[in-house]
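Good day; I would like, with your permission, to put a structural problem before you. What I wish to show you is a protein chain and, alongside it, a tokenised description of its three-dimensional fold. I would ask you to consider whether the tokens describe a fold that such a sequence might reasonably adopt. You will find the record immediately after this paragraph:
***
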Amino acid sequence: MCRARAHWTGSGATPAPGLTRITPTIRVSHGQVPAGDFGRAAPAGAVSFSVKHTEGVNVEVRCQSPAEVGPAPGSGTRWPLDKGTVLRFSMSRASTEVNDNKVTVSFYAEGGQPINQAGVFLTGIGISLDVDADRDGVVEKNSPNKASWTWGPEGHGAILLVSCDKENPFTVASDCDDERVFSREDLLDMSRMVLRTEGPQRLPRGYEIILYIPVSEADKVGVFYVQNPFFGQRYMQVLGRRKLYHTVQYTGGAAELDFFVEGLRFPDDTFPGLVSIHVSLLETLSEGIPHAPIFTDTVMFRVAPWIMTPNTLAPVNVFVCSMKDNYLFIKEIKNLVNKAGCDLKVCFGYINRGDRWMQDEIEFGYTHAPHKSFPVVLDSPQDGGLERFPIKDLLGPDFGYVSREPLFEAITSLDSFGNLEVSPPVTVAGKEYPLGRILIGSSFPISAGRRMTRIVRDFLCAQQVQAPVELYSDWLAVGHVDEFVTFVPTSDKKRFRMLMASPAACYKLFREKQKEGQGEATMFKGKGTSDTKRVTINKVLSNNILMQQNQYVQRCIDWNRDVLKKELGLLEEDIIDLPALFKLDKQGKAVPYFPNMVTMIVLAKDLGIPKPFGPIMGGECCLERQTRCLLEPLGLRCRFLEDVCSYHGRLGEVRCGTNVQRRPFAFKWWHVTP
């Protein structure tokens, strides 16, 4: 868009009397410059005027009456000089030289006698700050939508990635903490922003162009520009935490200056995700007078969110810790991973430092913009021996890292990421959640129990695209949602099923087997523990205390079931109940009575399920048989993994000791309507 710089003159060396009062300030609006109020400032005795101008200028006459607004007539036409008459002019193209365009106003007395002339010299400068506002990978020129941001398939607005990966292996911090760029690959994470200028070879004296960001956004966005372009293409940060403005070197003619923009932090409770960058043309009226902006162009970005991946997405890598007592478990996991067609990554002792709970330490997700996508791991505030693992083994080129640490809140077991799950895409009462909904465990609403720390909950909510649902998990000793709910993919219209732990389903199955004469079938055969007590179906069914405890557990699960049906838009046929039993510890918290099959690992159609060691009938565990009957008709393959010694005895299961990195959604998150 052309911006005009004006210089007024009168006829001869000295302006006509009164013309100094109509000298315009260069206050630019939509490419127009107000020329002044001729009714107050015209020469004495003037009753009309005419206008002529060079080819590159557009002129408009504005009177007090809206009906008298219109383009200026030819140079032979005269307009009455009424009170409030204003002349507005704009440039239709950029100048090639300073003062290369002119508007001349001739004033006339009664009877048509010329009195005097006033002229304004114009310099047109084109300035446009541009971004990929329509999200097609192209930085279009002067998009009408570049200064705003809207959601949905028909939405618009540019997108930034947080540069939370690390391209340089010799730096300690993520790229977003480094104010230098030495790698071309690092620029590929950033969004391109182009400053297009057009005009004479130099700016008129007293003018300059600056690029700037608000103080409130200095810690949220960084802008890089090439330094010494002929010596290695080194890029330096010109806007960011320590610099709020950058003076642009005007090069003359038609020029495009490429800037690269990165996000410095993900949205959170104090940052909604929107950042603006401005460019202004500054003018000083005379030496000693500060510069003032006469034109500003603005672009807006939204920082791309962190997005979780549900079990229904394809697995890429499976992570597990190597411990002294889980060699056989890793061997079984490796076979499962090979069948699923993904890779196994083993974290050895020098990194895990005796910590086996891979699921509790991290949650895999990703971030996505039109130009790029890469995985990002969210680090739990609940640090154990695996504290160094995500930074030392995961953070790297195109693999990001983010964490949220509370300053004052106490960290509990509910801050581990076994307590963080996400549903597949759902539709609830007509509202679509195409990226699913996050599930987190908490205390019962009226109790003062354990909750996930606020800073993590606020972070998850602020991403906006996977609206979280709080469930009640504090009734469990460990307190994780993955102990009573998970999701598996299916190939039917629904595309998934929700699995829930169910004491009621277990008691129903045991009673059926008891009626069939299998009451003395023994549990825990081959469990590999020192517990020599013989447990049969009859003993389980006759244990009134255990039954009462499981009635309580079932009520807790049913409360969550109702919440999940409402918040995920599920019907009963979308839910599968897997047999499970619990017992209460001395604090009244529930722990699994036998390995909890819901706490499984899901690798596409292949399921790694904790081996329950249920009653053996005909050489087969009846719990395993029941689970196969429920899941295999859906096209799923069940593999039961022995985890008693490695995990179950420590109040964990297969999923707790593993973690899965998955492919991202094909769906573009900016098409969501939060």
Observations:
- Residues 1-39, 66-70 have pLDDT under 50 and may be disordered.
- The radius of gyration is 35 Å.
